[in-house]
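Hello Y.,

Per our agreement to keep a running log of every chain we model this quarter, I'm adding this entry. I've kept the format consistent with earlier entries: sequence first, then predicted structure.
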Amino acid sequence: DLTLTTDRSLYTASPVSGEGSPRMYGFTVMAQFTNRLSRPVYLERCYPSAPIPIYGVVPVEGQVEAGYDPVWACVGHDSPIVVAAGETRTDSLRIVGPNAWDGHTKEPLGALVGHFQLRYAVGACPEVDGCGGEPRGRGSNNFEVRLEP
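Predicted structure for the entry above:
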C-alpha cells in the first residue's frame, strides 16, 4: 500500500571533494513514494519548510552501517510532508558520504560500495513519531553503489 522506489538499481558515486582520504563521494537518486492507502500519510522532514523528507540509507548485505546514511540535526515542529491518498511524490536526493569518521584513526565509517536501501519515516498522523501503529519506516527496492574509478 505504501511504496518507495529509486530510479535505478545501480549508481556510480563520483568524488565530490577532498583528495586522498577521506574523499567524499556522491550520487543523485530520484525517489518515488506512493500512498495507495485510503487516507493520508505523513513524512517526517527536518525543518518545517524543507522540500524533502528525512531519509536514511541502510545496507542490505550485513554491513554494520552505510557511509551514505546522513546525520540529521533537525528542529522540532509539527509540519510534516502530507502525502494524500492515491498520491505519488518524487524527491531528488543528493546522497553523499562518508558522513562519519573514527575520532582516532580519521578513517571513514560505513560502507560506500555494496547494496543499500533508501528509507523514509512515515507516520499515520502528523506527529509521525508519536502515532504508534502503522505505518512506520518504509524501505525502497535494493540498489547497488559503485565508486567511480
